[in-house]
Amino acid sequence: MPLTDLPLDQLRAYRPEVAEPEDFDDFWAKTLAAARAAESGPAEYRRIADAPLTGVEVYDARFPGWAGQPVAAWLILPRGARGPLPVVVNYIGYSGGRGLYIEHLLWSAAGYATLVVDSRGQGHDTPDPHQETSPQYVGGFMTRGLDDPANHYYRRLMTDCVRAVDAMRGHPAVDPDRVVAAGASQGGGLALAVAALAPEKVAAALVDVPFLCHFRRGAELATTGPYPEIAHYLGVHRRTDPDAVFAVLNYFDGLHFAPRATAPALFSVGLMDPICPPSTVFAAYHRYAGAQKDIRVWHFADHGGGRASQPYEQLLWLRGRGLAADG
């Protein structure tokens, strides 16, 4: 697979200017305030008594998300660990959900609590009652609600992700000062958004090969994955003004979240990534406001990035930030 974007020296200098919505902060402040006001009750955790695992305790969780609607998650705690524990709130890649709890044991093996957040409408356990059926919908989630940022799918999903952090900070097994937002691809973009929308609640962000960054360049360069949904939509609706479409997407772009995030952050990028072009990742990384930030560059990697090597890097990096589970 060839390089998909700029050479590394140009990527390290790539700092595009993308105008942000004037009401960006007000839009998100009102969105999150409405979600918190709609909360009908606390998060619920049902222990999976017959989980065939000896090293962890598993809970089928539901916490209030967008409009107070219940969002499914797995809470996985290392068995016998003395709390309060640091927690990794893990967000999932595009078109996936929380899956099976047995798929998410790495962080508990390292001594962390883990919350694996289902993605509304993408997983099997959290429906999206507000699913758009308007002409803006074209084969995926990127174009759901393109008529108005208030209607867009990612307004709901990103709200769910912030509310997951709210839920974890109130759990008795968790140290509220050691909440880590983490994910790869879509999950990486969501972790970046959460770090910006709840900066006082997130102690660190693990932003792995992030999607949802620099939408316009992604739509122009990506050859597979979700970004081409935007190009396909604009190709079909030829009379639609592209600037109007990207003006809506700007409310959900990691380029605008990054300057508002201050927690220590570890990014990663694959230079042969056809799904999230490396320039989209570097554009967000360069704008990230946290003083303690770093990026792992995987030169001969596609969208898998560092694969199993990246979690190893993340564990060492968290230890260096004083966020190890035994710290």
TrEMBL record:
Which GO biological process entries does UniProt record here? Answer: polysaccharide metabolic process
Q: Where is the Acetyl xylan esterase domain?
A: 1-319
Q: Please tell me where substrate binds in this chain.
A: Y94
Tell me the InterPro entries matching this sequence. Answer: AB_hydrolase_fold, AXE1_dom, CE7
Residues in the active site?
S185, D273, H303
Domain of life according to the entry: Bacteria
Record-annotated membrane-spanning stretches: none
GO-annotated molecular function = carboxylic ester hydrolase activity
**Under what name is this protein listed?**
Acetylxylan esterase
